[in-house]
Request: fold
Amino acid sequence: MEIFEYKKRDAQGNETESARVFYECSGSGPAVMLLHGWGCNHTFWRPFAQVLARSYTVYNFDLPGFGQSSEPMTAWGVNEYVEMLEAFVAAHCPGPVSLVGHSFGGRMSIIYASRNPVTRIALVDAAGIRPRRTLGYYRRIYTYKFKRWLVLNVFNRPELFEQWRAHQGSADYRAASPRMKPIFSKVVNQDLKEFLPKIQAPVLLFWGEKDTATPLADAKIMEKMIPSETRLVVIEGAGHFAAFIEGKEQFAQEMKAFFGIEDGVAATAGEGLNDAK
Reply:
């Protein structure tokens, strides 16, 4: 594992915080960034990194807050994670990069590609489409706020509130450390639809049909809103980790075709996508 010492700076160039970002680098050729999902780490991508490394220089990250990398010192949103990636690319890669992002890594890929030159992007059960809020959602939110007010202001029992709050939220939220919890809340509440029309590179969407974390409907929205050449591959009966479990063999084949790897020669922009059709 190698280390990138990231220095976050403000508009005046002053350092505001730092993070140690661990990553693996393999292969040679044009650069590919592998970005894992929330709660995961670089090991999820290792089998595919080996495939891509035949023709590419592959950077496989532990994103800040996961694996061996340090947690952000403040409550980062997706934009702060992308700024870290932009700083890494500026320091290590001379030309446009390719992106492969699963779930949260897909969020990063969408924003990065909307404002930087990119060769190609694989969005794998990617997050970024905020679900329509139902009446039940707002009922839960206001019930939570009322209970918080009651316990803290009427009964003055902050310790009771903390015990109760520890059992609320999604499994990812409950599993997060105290510093990562506000980051999770900030990330999942950001809708990225506004960035999709700005993507110009070829896109491969790889999805599990039964994904409940990022439903197939999200992929179809992305397919419709991304103006560049886009292809959607759906794995029947698979869930949020289709690329790593039920559809891992097909995913490997799709990746080789998309990246033009089968003959050992890296493809030009868009070539791999056409071959995969």
